[in-house]
UniProtKB/TrEMBL annotation:
Species for this entry: Leeuwenhoekiella parthenopeia
UniProt xrefs under Gene3D superfamilies: 1.50.10.10, Glycoside hydrolase, family 65, N-terminal domain
Listed transmembrane segments: none
Signal peptide limits: 1-18
Protein origin, superkingdom: Bacteria
GO molecular function: hydrolase activity
Identification of the protein by name: Glycoside hydrolase family 65 protein
Matches recorded under PANTHER family: GLYCOSYL HYDROLASE-RELATED, PROTEIN-GLUCOSYLGALACTOSYLHYDROXYLYSINE GLUCOSIDASE
One family name in Pfam for this protein: Glyco_hydro_65m
Keywords in alphabetical order: Hydrolase, Signal
InterPro entries cross-referenced by the UniProt entry: 6-hairpin_glycosidase_sf, 6hp_glycosidase-like_sf, GH65_N, Glyco_hydro_65_M, Glyco_hydro_65_N
Length: 679
């Protein structure tokens, strides 16, 4: 263990972090490998690039296309409106001819700024925003300070992925009375034709008036190719003078609008005719509201920045007004997992958000309640009752797992995970109207499913046979520990929900819950499934029965299970398992092991230069929002001692690692309570 921890500490030094505060991460290293940060507002995600004035791609939330060959839906990479070509004195600005390059993610204001100098001629900054207040739009703010007289040419672009169908590119100057509104626009069908995407863009001028000296530049339109629509201007900047402008874009689709073409134009016009101060002021105010739920770590700046980056991504990938969920990679990548929704949301991301932002948490559960009917139909199709939620979910609520994967037909614990999340939402919010309208119908259907899913044994107990558990290394097993434990918990929660509403619960729910098997080895260690014999495990399974399920609650058994299963966790598995081990050690009062596992749960997965998380230590797909949820649970439910119970959010036995002077949890629950743990 000591050797592993030394490796972790070594990896800590692999990133260049701003050392001034816990809100900014800065790098001066633009060499490969480079993993960008997703600037997102819960609706669109813009992945940053090391290249000046460039982004990697755009991801559109809940916009799916279906590959007719693979027969699998995929979240859509949208048109990219975030790229500019900039020329100074006829030479294009690239990473090859700039110096003093740096990039900073400002997590407090959700802004990503690149600074650099160009050949002693100009100092340049470029800041990317996915506007929180205007959820289908992005805003790229540019400032160029001339160190000598320079001649500037800027090309704004809408780039359509070449897989798209029937691209159409236009430019039009719209007029209303004396107001002129130049709009660049591209429209195309998604690669397999399910949706139409419309993207509009334009330049916004700051501090340029109609005087002769500071006239707005003339704009030139050019269709560079069917997949690249451009709008450009040229401008002379005198020595010591500045030019400040923005390039703004809006991207709308038929997934959300009957007329995405017109709506994207209106949104760009809105941005064009509002000041930067108004637009960015609204964006910053909403992020300030989000950060009312925060985690402060004193004495360990590195942990503070890591935790903030995790929380930033959960906030960035979710919206409280959307009734949408969060995919494992959020809005950073299309692959892996095609942007589908898994148990990652309910078990890993949802609990931290439930404590810190009930609005986003409500969207996550409402996403499931909105898809209850397809889940009911699926249960019928497989010979069961109630609702059988898909292992991978998309916009339809039907099963979206690739047919070759056994998880689609057999990983059933997702249905229990959803029921558990629903009751926890009620326990924290006490929203009886939501429980009646949305919560209980789902929880009842979940409980009915499990009653129909179990098999009765000769001794009167119940088994759940032929499942894929949380440990996916062991497919098609009987009596998987976590599946059985989750089913027990969901059945008990459904009974409580019925009683809360004055409804007589189905007596079978309690009867089945009380007699589902949890298997043990002769020495008392919990058995992962009926045929388990010490094999490697992909991630925590048995240990989830202690946290968050609280089915195993005796300290002796918890420690036995921890000591048995931690060495069996595969290095190539996802990081969340170690988060669970860390929570459990913290709850047993072992701060050293908890902190060790906290760091091991994410540090090996951090990618240069900002520390974005990949799913595993051997991959570089980022940002892994599931891992963020796991590490945040270690802080909140482990070190912070918080628990979700029938009384709401309570605290029991918080503990600080010796590396921290204090831990402050802000904005917890509906009453925005603050918990501070000090030495």
């Amino acid at each position: 263990m000591k050797q592993i921890f030394n490796v972790v500490l070594l990896l800590l030094s692999a990133f260049v972090y701003a050392q001034n505060d816990g809100w900014h991460i800065t790098t001066q290293n633009n060499e490969d490998p480079y993993t960008g940060i997703a600037m997102s507002n819960g609706r669109i995600g813009i992945l940053t690039s090391a290249e000046p004035f460039k982004i990697k791609h755009t991801v559109l939330n809940n916009v799916y296309d279906v590959d007719p060959v693979l027969k699998v839906s995929q979240i859509v990479h949208g048109m990219d409106f975030g790229n500019l070509d900039v020329f100074i004195d006829g030479e294009q600005v690239t990473s090859e001819n700039i110096v003093n390059w740096s990039q900073t993610i400002d997590m407090k204001e959700a802004a990503f700024t690149t600074h650099f100098d160009f050949k002693g001629k100009a100092k340049i900054s470029c800041t990317i925003y996915a506007l929180r207040n205007l959820q289908y739009t992005g805003y790229i703010d540019v400032k160029i300070s001339a160190l000598e007289d320079i001649y500037l040419k800027v090309i704004g672009k809408i780039t359509t992925p070449k897989q798209y169908q029937d691209p159409q590119n236009t430019y039009e100057v719209l007029r209303d009375v004396e107001t002129t509104m130049p709009i660049l626009q591209s429209i195309a069908k998604t690669p397999f034709g399910k949706h139409v995407v419309a993207t509009s863009g334009t330049f916004v001028w700051h501090h340029i008036n109609s005087s002769r000296e500071q006239q707005r530049p003339e704009l030139t339109h050019k269709v560079a190719s069917p997949y690249e629509n451009t709008l450009s201007f040229e401008y002379e900047i005198k020595k010591t003078k500045n030019l400040e402008f923005a390039w703004t874009g809006a991207e709308c689709t038929t997934a959300n609008f009957s007329d995405p073409k017109s709506e994207s134009e209106r949104m760009v016009i809105f941005n064009l005719l509002n000041s930067r101060e108004v637009l960015l002021g609204g964006h910053k105010a909403l992020w300030e509201k989000l950060w009312e739920g925060d985690i402060l770590i004193e004495g360990d700046l590195k942990s503070q920045q890591d935790v903030r980056l995790a929380l930033y991504h959960l906030y960035a990938f979710g919206r409280g007004d959307s009734d949408l969920s969060i995919a494992p990679m959020g809005l950073s990548l299309q692959v892996p997992y095609n942007g589908h929704i898994f148990w990652d949301t309910e078990l890993w991301m949802f609990p931290p958000l439930l404590l810190l932002n009930q609005d986003i948490a409500r969207s996550l559960v409402n996403y499931r309640s909105d898809r209850l009917e397809p889940a009911k139909e699926r249960a019928v199709n497989y010979g069961f009752k109630g609702a059988m939620f898909p292992w991978e979910s998309d916009d339809t609520g039907e099963e979206a797992t690739p047919p070759f994967a056994l998880t689609g037909p057999f990983e059933h614990h997702i249905t229990a995970d959803i029921g558990i999340a629903f009751w926890n939402y009620f326990r924290v919010t006490k929203n009886i109207k939501w429980l009646e309208d949305k919560g209980y119908p789902v929880m009842k259907a979940v409980a009915d499913f499990w009653v129909s899913r179990v098999s009765k044994n000769d001794d009167g107990s119940y088994s759940i046979n032929n499942v894929v558990g949380a440990n996916e290394f062991a497919p098609n097993v009987n009596d998987n520990a976590f599946t059985n434990g989750a089913a027990i918990t969901a059945l008990n929660f459904a009974t409580r929900a019925a009683k809360e509403l004055g409804i007589i619960p189905n007596a079978e729910w309690e009867q089945v819950a009380n007699t589902i098997r949890i298997l043990k080895f002769p020495d008392g260690v919990t058995k992962e499934h009926a045929d388990y014999d010490g094999e490697r495990i992909k991630q925590a399974d048995v240990n989830l029965l202690a946290y968050p399920l609280n089915i195993i609650n005796k300290e002796e058994t918890i420690l036995k299970d921890l000591q048995y299963y931690e060495p069996k966790l595969a290095r190539e598995g996802p990081a969340m398992g170690k988060s669970i081990f860390a929570v459990l050690y913290a709850r047993q009062g072992d701060a050293d092991n908890a902190f060790r596992l906290f760091k091991e749960s994410y540090v090996p997965n951090q990618q240069k230069p900002f520390g974005a998380l990949s799913e595993t230590a051997t991959a570089n797909h980022s940002y892994f929002a599931t891992g963020a949820g796991g590490m945040l649970q270690t802080v909140l439910f482990g070190f912070g001692g918080l628990e979700i119970s029938e009384e709401g959010i309570t605290q029991k036995n918080p503990i600080l690692p010796k590396q921290w002077k204090s831990l402050t949890l802000k904005g917890i629950g509906l009453d925005k309570k603050t918990y501070k743990i000090e030495r």
